[in-house]
Design brief:
Elements (H helix, E strand, L loop, with lengths): L3 E8 L3 E8 L4 E8 L2 H9 L4 E7 L4 H8 L5 E5 L14 H14 L13 H30 L15 H5 L5 H32 L3 H6 L6 H12 L8 H8 L3 E4 L4 E4 L2 E4 L5 E5 L5 H14 L5 H10 L4 H22 L5 H5 L1 H4 L1
Parallel strand pairs: 1-4, 4-5
Antiparallel strand pairs: 1-2, 2-3, 6-9, 7-8
Helix pairs in contact: 4-6, 4-8, 6-8, 8-10, 9-12, 10-12, 11-12
Length: 356
């Protein structure tokens, strides 16, 4: 009897398709079960041997991960964007589950981090704050677009002031547009209050985490950004080096090269032609990238980022690339401070190349 079992799960709201392969890659079981906690537990308890489970990242992935993890030897939540095999050929619940089981057995799945139980509450508060901020920005954009669409100049932020909303509404002559603008002002007013409340809740929840106090001491980070970083990342030990953290934050440079080696007689030598760059990596955590890029404007007024910014300007580096470079520096300092559990120190941060 095969000892190793590889379980691929294709999860949907009502049902979950499960395919089980043995260690030789043979399909030994397939079933469609309800997407309910006890049903999934009963199924997995009935699978003998050392069980490995894989499923795709999605809305129910975190919930399902907590159900499956205590019952099996290994559980992997995979990134569907990195799992190209699912996109090839025919598609169906059974086919997808079978492909996931095959990829799991071959060790070809790229896992998505699921853990950090101590920061679960903070993670939810970060999601809440981020959603409210996004909603308020969306309403502000709609409001400004409405006025621009009627030829009314509205540069700056004065248009968002609730006290002057009557003055702005009087500029619109068309009744339907005026009514719509009134509703947008009402929605924006409610979202502004929700934004203040969600921020207060976020800061209150972050006070229980020592890491937020450490990170908030870094120039440009502050209490809110520190809470977002801790709630998003959970632990710095997910990243062995700063370069891995850069990739997660969207600051890794993508390079392309071809025909890297050639023979000179019988000797193999590396071609010294210049490697071309293709910008920054596109698969990243957008919330973290916004946090570190947003921190640049404040950070460049304090050391060590101030002198680093001046060095970039002296070398005639374009402002866009300079901002990304400083953001990478802030990310490196953040990772180092968090790992060391020591407050930000200017002199130590100058040697960040050796400790990050």
């Amino acid at each position: 009897m095969s000892r190793e079992k590889y379980v691929g799960m294709d999860v949907h709201q009502a049902s979950t398709t499960v395919v089980v392969h043995d260690e030789r890659g043979k399909c030994v079981m397939e079933s469609v079960i309800e997407t309910k906690a006890e049903t999934i537990r009963d199924f997995l308890r009935g699978v003998s041997g050392s069980v490995h489970v894989a499923l795709e990242e999605g809305t129910q992935a975190a919930w399902l991960y907590e159900i499956v993890r205590p019952l099996v030897g290994e559980v992997i939540v995979c990134d569907p964007r990195a799992n190209k095999a699912l996109m090839a050929g025919n598609k169906g619940d059974r086919i997808d589950a079978d492909k996931i089981a095959q990829q799991l057995r071959a060790g070809l799945l790229k896992p998505v981090y699921h853990g950090g139980h101590s920061t679960r509450e903070l993670k939810e508060l970060v999601h809440n704050y981020d959603s409210v901020v996004s909603d308020s920005v969306r309403v502000m954009s709609r409001l400004k677009a409405l006025f621009r669409g009627h030829g009314i100049p509205c540069a700056g932020r004065a248009i968002y002031d609730a006290k002057s909303s009557d003055k702005w509404l009087a500029m619109i002559s068309e009744p339907g547009a005026k009514s719509r603008a009134g509703f947008l002002y009402t929605e924006l007013s409610a979202l502004k209050q929700l934004r203040r409340d969600s921020k207060k809740s976020l800061l209150s929840g972050s006070e229980r985490h020592q890491a937020t106090k450490l990170l908030s001491s870094i120039p440009g980070i502050g209490a809110v950004r520190a809470a977002i970083i801790v709630g998003t990342v959970s632990t710095p030990h997910r990243f062995r080096t700063r370069r891995q953290f850069w990739t997660y934050c969207g600051f890794a440079v993508v390079t392309r090269s071809s025909s890297d080696y050639r023979f000179e007689g019988s000797k193999l030598v590396r071609d010294r032609k210049r490697v071309t760059t293709r910008g920054l990596n596109r698969n990243f955590n957008r919330r973290l990238k916004a946090v570190f890029k947003g921190a640049v404007q404040q950070a460049i007024n304090h050391e060590p980022f101030k002198s680093y910014w001046q060095q970039l300007k002296a070398r005639n580096v374009s402002p866009a690339i300079a901002r990304v470079s400083v953001a990478r520096k802030i990310a490196s300092v953040t990772l180092a401070v968090w790992k060391s559990s020591e407050k930000f120190d200017v002199e130590k941060s100058r040697k960040i190349q050796t400790i990050a």
